[in-house]
Amino acid sequence: MTRGHDQHGAHNGGRGHTHGVSADSDKRLLTGALALILVFMAGEVVVGVLANSLALISDAGHMLTDAASIGLALVAMRLAARPPRGGYTYGLNRAEILSAQANGITLLLLSAWLTFEAVRRLIHPPEVTGGLVLVTALAGIAINLAASWLIGRANRGSLNVEGVFQHIVTDLYAFVATAIAGLIVVLTGFTRADAIASLIVVALMLKAGAGLVRDSGRIFLEAAPSGLQPDLIGRALADRPHVVEVHDLHIWQITSGMPAASAHVLVAVGEDCHGVRADLEHVLEHDYQITHTTLQVDHASQRLLTIERHCGDPHGPTHRGN
């Protein structure tokens, strides 16, 4: 065979994949956490108004975003579980990434509003009923510990579930800060502690929100998964037996836990293209946990030894074997 050509789709037979799509058990865990949060949030809003506590109201607002994030995550799971059809050849897997990004943006927007309100209350501190704040915050800690435990048992390899988990954990830290603020108000009468606790919550929101927006943004921009370096992978593939050149190498994530790779590989004349392709697929799966691969394999004749002649518009660096 003077010029072998093989297109290998991203199916890989019966190999296991982590697609970031949660099982029914994960849906039940998230639904249980949602019920806990909704019931407690309603009570917290009432107590926050009675106690005139921004920290409690901000915690309730954060819990509202927790509930929304879980609801959005459940919808995204349902969409992502649909099989590919029509123009959606990957299905709707990235619905989960849209959910994660929405969670991150919500945290950032909420933190901006809370910062404004906390600064206003630092300048003009209102009266705060510290006892109500303390008791409610302690109850909130218990509720969030239970919700965190439930969601922590779900598949956190999914950025969608991780987004929900970050919401809940941030809320847990917020209740700890609010409880401390309530205790300070009870013991000292220093009502500005309530606003200071809100600012601590804001810092946690900013950290969690920025991380979710960054990670989901990398997936939408087709960046390589964190921890995978395309140049190193390209060199490793080019160093395999009988490989002359690897170019047009692309590594990206279809959704969280679902990395993919494609490349054009030139094989030494007279060697088995199918065998080389199988070897490269094994390297990608075994060394880099990439099981969704599309490798175009050709023999490298003398006139095809340069990428410029073989591919008129190459993308990315070229890796040549030793």
Summarize the structure in words.
Strand 3, helix 8 and strand 4 (292-299) form a beta-alpha-beta unit. The protein has 2 domains: 24-220, Cation efflux protein transmembrane domain (Alpha-lytic protease prodomain-like); 224-320, 2-Layer Sandwich (Alpha-Beta Plaits), CATH 3.30.70.1350. Mean pLDDT is 81; it is low at 1-22. The two termini are 24 Å apart. A 5-stranded mixed sheet has the order 1-4-3-2-5. It is α+β, with helices and mostly antiparallel strands. The protein has helices at 24-51, 54-80, 95-123, 130-152, 159-188, 192-220, 230-238, 273-288, 307-310, and strands spanning 6-7, 243-255, 258-267, 292-299, 319-320. The longest helix is centred in the middle third of the chain and has 30 residues, at 159-188.
